[in-house]
Specification:
Number of strands: 8
Number of helices: 15
Helix content: 55-70%
Structural class: mainly alpha
Order of helices and strands: HHHEHHEEHHHEEHHHHHHEEHE
Length: 532
Amino acid sequence: MTFFNNLSKLFGEQGQLGPRSAPQPRRPQHGKSSQSTRPAPPVRPVLEQPAQPQPRPVVQSQSTVTAVIEAQARARDIIVNAKDEALAIHTEAEKKARKLEKQLEDQQHFLESKLDKLDERLGGLEQKEQYLGEEKTKLASLRAELDKAKESVAEKLQKVSKLSVAEAKKLLMESLEKKMADQMAQYIKQREEEAKQEADDKAAELLIEAMKYGATDHVAEYTVSVVNIPSEEIKGKIIGKNGRNIHAFERATGVDVDLDASPTEVKLSCFDPVRREIARIALERLIKDGRIQPARIEEIVEKVQTEMEKVVFEAGKQLCHTVGIYNIPSALISLLGRFKYRFSYGQNMITHTIEETKIGTKIAHELGLDVNIVKLGCLLHDIGKVSQDPDDNHVALGVRIAKKYGMPQAVIDCIAQHHEDEPFSGPEQMAVYIADAISGARPGARYENHEEYIKRLEDLEKIAMSYPEVKQAYAVQAGRELRVLLDPEQSKDDDVTVLAVKMRDEIQEKVMVPGSVNVTVIREHRAIEKTT
C-alpha cells in the first residue's frame, strides 16, 4: 500500500506543474531517395485564408524544472522501497509455506503410524476371532460327546434299575422326604416354642416397663359441683326478689342451680366443666361477700372468668411441659388446660393424659417407632372431650380440632383410631390405642355408676318405644347410638326422617348423656311367598 500511495502523490504533483511545451515539428530527413525526380503536383489556385494566431512559446521557469527533478528522484525512491517491501513479503510467505509443509509432513507421519497400529490391532483381532471360532467348535463337539455319554449312562442305569428317569427322581424325593420329615417336624416345633416363649417374655417385659414408666405423681384435683352454705338464709339471698338473683347467676354462668337437694348445699350442673368451676368459685365469693345482686353477680363472674382463662392456660402449659411437647398453638394449649376440670368415668383427664403419654412414649422407644407422633397422639387423643361443640362425639371433634390447628396426618389418624372407629393405619396409631387402654383399664383408674348407666339406656329405649310406629329399639355402643326399627305396616318412608328428628330432640331435652347420641331409624318391608 505504501508503494501505491507514493505513486499517487507523485502523479498528483506532476499534474500541478502546468501544460507541457508544444511538440516541435519533425524535420524531413534527406537521403538518396530524395534526389529522385517526382512529377510536380498540379498547381491549384491558392485561396486566401485568414491568418491564425501563432502559439506563444512556453518558457519553463527554474522552479518548475527543480520540482520535476525532485519528483523523479522521489519516484525512484518509491520504486526501490516497493521492491524491498515486495521482497520481504515474498520471503515471509516462503517461510510460512515451509512451516506449513513441515506441519503437514508431521501430521502425515503421525497418521501413518496410527494406521500401522490399527492394522496391527485388526490383525490381532482376526487371529483371536479365528482362535475363538476354533475353540467354540471344539466345545460344541465336547458337549455333543458329553450328551451322548449321559444318554448312554442313563440307558445303562435304566437297564440295571429297571426304572425310568422320572420314576427314579420320584423315588429319590420320597426317600429324602421320609428321612427329613421327623427332623423338620422337631425343628419347626422347637422354633415355634422358642418364638412363643420369647414373644410372651418380651410382651410382659414391655407392658411392665411401660406401666412402670407411666406412673405419675400428679394428684387429681376433683372439682365438686357442690357449694356448702352456712344457713338457709343464704338461699334466700341467692334466689333474690322474684328469683332475679338466681336467674342472673344462671344467665351469667350458664349453669343450672339446684337449691332443693339439701338445706346446706347448692348443686351446680353443667356439661362444661370449666363453666361449672367458674360458677362454683363465683358463688363461693358471693356468699363470702354477702352482696348478692345482679350487678355484683355479673362483676364477680366476669372477674372469675378472666382468672380462669389464665388458670386454664397455665394448666395446659404445665401439661405440655410435663410430657415434653413444645411449640404448639396457644389456643390448643388453652383447650388442653380444660383437662384440669374434666373427668372421664371419675378419672381426671390431666392424670390420664400424662399417664398415657408416658406409657406410649415407652412403647415407642422399645419398638423403634416415631416418638413425636406417639407423644402428640397421646396428648391430643381426647381433645374433643373439651370442645365447645356438643353436636358430635369426641373422636370426630378431636379430628376436627387437630385439622384446624394443622397437626400432621399421622397425629390425626391417632385421634381418629384410638377407639378403633377406623382401621389402624400404622404402628404409631396402635401404640396410642394400647397406651390409652392400659391407662383407662388398670384397676382403680376409673369407676362408673352402673345404676345410672343402665337407667340411661332404659330411658333411651323408652323414648323410642313411646312412638306407635316403632316395633323395636336398642341402645347400643354404650348409649352412643339408638337403633330403631319401624313397623312397615304402621309407617311410611317419610316417617323415618321425621321420627329421627323427634327422638333426637326429646333425648336432648330429657336424658343426660355425656357426648352425642346417634339416632338410626330403619324401616324395612319384606314380601315372602312359598310355592306349593
